[in-house]
Each structure stands twice: as C-alpha cells, then as structure tokens.
Specification:
disordered N terminus, alpha/beta, 346 residues, 9 strands
C-alpha cells in the first residue's frame, strides 16, 4: 500500500466512525449483461462483503410478461441492486414494488446502455434526451417503495454532450423525480455508428466533468464509473466522489476485489487467498449442480482469478476445456488448481 493510500485509508476509516457508515455506493460492481448473473455475484461476494452488487439489466417487460423468474438471487448477495431497463412509469413502479417484496436493497434505472435493441425499447442511453420521462419513472417508483431508487447514466449522448445538457438532466431527474443517487459513466454514448463494446472504449473518458458535477450537486450522492482498473485509481476517485463503480476489470481480474473491504471499508478481516476462494466455492457449486446447473455456468466467472500469476493460463485452459462436459464436477476445479505452482502462497 502506498503512503498516500495509507493516509486515505486512515482518513476514510475515521470518516466512517464519525458518519456511522459509508454510502451504499462507495464501491460497486457494474451491471454487465451476460456477465453479472447470480453465480458471478456469489463468487464476487466471497471476496468482498461490503461491495454493492448489481444484477444484469432486466427489462420491465421480461419481469412482467416473461415466463422465467428474472428476480432470483442468492441471499448471500446482499447488498444487491436490481437494474431495470424500461421507460413506462407504471411498469417501472410495478417492477420496483416486486423487487422490494423480493428483498432487493435498491432499484436502479438504466439510462446508459447504447445498444440498438435497448433504443428500440425506448430505454437505456436514449433516455438522456427525455429527462422529464426519467423523472416521472423515478417518481412513480419512489411512490410505491421505501428502498432507494437510483439512476445510472452517461455524461451525454451524440451531439448533446455539453455540460449544460448534463446538469439539466441531473437537475430535472433529481428535483422532479426525487432521485438522490446517481452513478455517472464518464463517457458519452453514440446512439448510432458505434457498437455497445465500442461505446465502452472509443468515446473519451472525462473524469473532471464528473468531479465538477458532484461539486455542483453536493446534496446528491454520486458514484463514478468508466475505465477504473486499479485500487489506486479507486482511492483517487474517492477523493472527489461518494463512490466508484468498476465493471470489466472486476470481471476479468476478480482478485482486485479481495482487498476492497480492508482498503475502502476499514475491515480488519484477513484478505482471502485465491485458493481459499476457490475452495469456498465448492459447496455452492455442488448445490447448483444438484439443482440442474452445469459446471461451466459457474466456473466461467472464475477464469480470471489467477490473472498475471504463474499457472494462470493452465488454470483457464483446464476449466475451459472440461467444465462444459456432461457430468463435470468440482474435480475439474481441483485439477485446475493443481496447475498453480504449489509453493505459491496465493
């Protein structure tokens, strides 16, 4: 830990003592479609008890009309946020009430996803151009639930990327909708011409704009999202923001999460070793297998655990080549773990 990190760690620990607790958004893992399912969230929770976890974005239509249970989760996942995709205030309110009844800790509206499919459904990033509608949706949800209702958005869309446009959006949604909690992805979104993947990489990051937004709306709780990869970057952003949300790095290099409770929440618990985390997954995996899941449904989220460690490639390869086979069980993980040099205390 660097000297500056030590100072920040001590400072935030003292802050917690004075304030009673940290904001719920102090550190969170972004909702990522096809990635942050309930198996992924259980795995992440083994490494960090305080991090706010998000579901994948679930549309209001799927919850209301779908045949599956789109609200299922493991009790161990709390604190857990349901991210909704939708724009109809009545539907949003109905889903928010269902989420509260199921025990979710917060509901979040997606105003950041730029995919064509999302735009056709009139939700996601295109809603930045309809601040009044977003405000109506937030207000309708807040009217029927007691849990927090938050918004995740971008800093702009297409050529509507001025700071004034952003502040107008935040002002309308917070004042007319009553929203107090925002997560700001520090990139604008292009609604046409770029794929969702390109929209996560090509529009430039603008952290100073997000910092300025927090200064101009000090009464609102704001977290920053976009391009954050290291603990040092997280701690640096927390000097300006209430919280930080990490996306792809938490998925591709999940061991980043192992120190979160100690570094950001003042926990005195020892940091878990990678081997401990793998072995702690065994009972969960066996339970899922007994309920009909396939091994690779769970293990695909664990491939990056030994990122940049000796044996990491062999670990990934063994799981990738064997976890999908019928009848595969935890022996696949045990064999993969044996690919990591035994002398490493990891």
């Amino acid at each position: 830990m660097t000297d500056s990190a030590v100072v920040l760690h001590e400072h935030t620990t003292n802050e917690q003592t004075q304030a009673g607790e940290y904001p719920a958004c102090r550190f969170s893992i972004a909702p990522m479609l096809d990635w942050t399912d309930r198996h992924c969230r259980y795995f992440h929770r083994l490494m960090t008890g305080h991090t706010q976890l998000y579901t994948e974005m679930v549309t209001t239509g799927a919850i209301i009309h779908g045949k599956g249970d789109y609200l299922a989760y493991n009790e161990e996942e709390h604190p857990l946020v349901l991210q909704l995709g939708g724009s109809n205030p009545a539907d949003l309110a109905r889903c928010a009430k269902l989420a509260q009844d199921r025990g979710y800790d917060e509901v979040n509206i997606n105003v950041g996803c730029p995919s064509d499919r999302v735009q056709n459904g009139r939700f996601g990033a295109c809603l930045m151009g309809e601040a009044e509608l977003v405000a109506q949706g937030v207000a309708a949800m807040r009217e029927v639930v007691d849990i927090p209702v938050s918004v995740k958005t971008r800093i702009g869309i297409d050529d509507q990327d001025s700071y004034e446009f952003l502040t107008d959006f935040i002002g309308i949604v917070s004042e007319k909708g009553g929203c107090k909690d925002f997560t700001i992805h520090a990139r604008k979104a292009w609604l046409s011409g770029l794929s969702p993947k390109e929209n996560r990489e090509i529009p430039p990051l603008d952290y100073p704009r997000v910092y300025q937004l927090k200064r101009d709306f000090p009464h609102l709780t704001m977290a920053l999202n976009g391009g954050v990869k290291t603990m040092e970057e997280i701690e640096a952003h927390l000097q300006h923001m209430d919280g930080v949300m990490v996306g792809r790095e938490a998925y591709q290099n999940p061991y980043l999460l192992a120190e979160i409770d100690q570094r950001l929440f003042g926990s005195s618990d020892p940091v878990k070793k990678r081997r401990e985390i793998v072995e702690a997954m065994y009972p969960y995996i066996e339970r899922q297998l007994s309920e009909g899941s396939y091994l690779n449904h769970v293990t695909r989220h664990m491939l990056g655990l030994f990122q940049n460690m000796p044996g990491a490639r062999q670990w990934r390869r063994h799981i990738s080549e064997n976890a999908h086979k019928p009848g595969s069980g935890i022996e696949v993980l045990e064999q993969a773990l044996a690919k990591i040099p035994a002398h490493l205390d990891v």
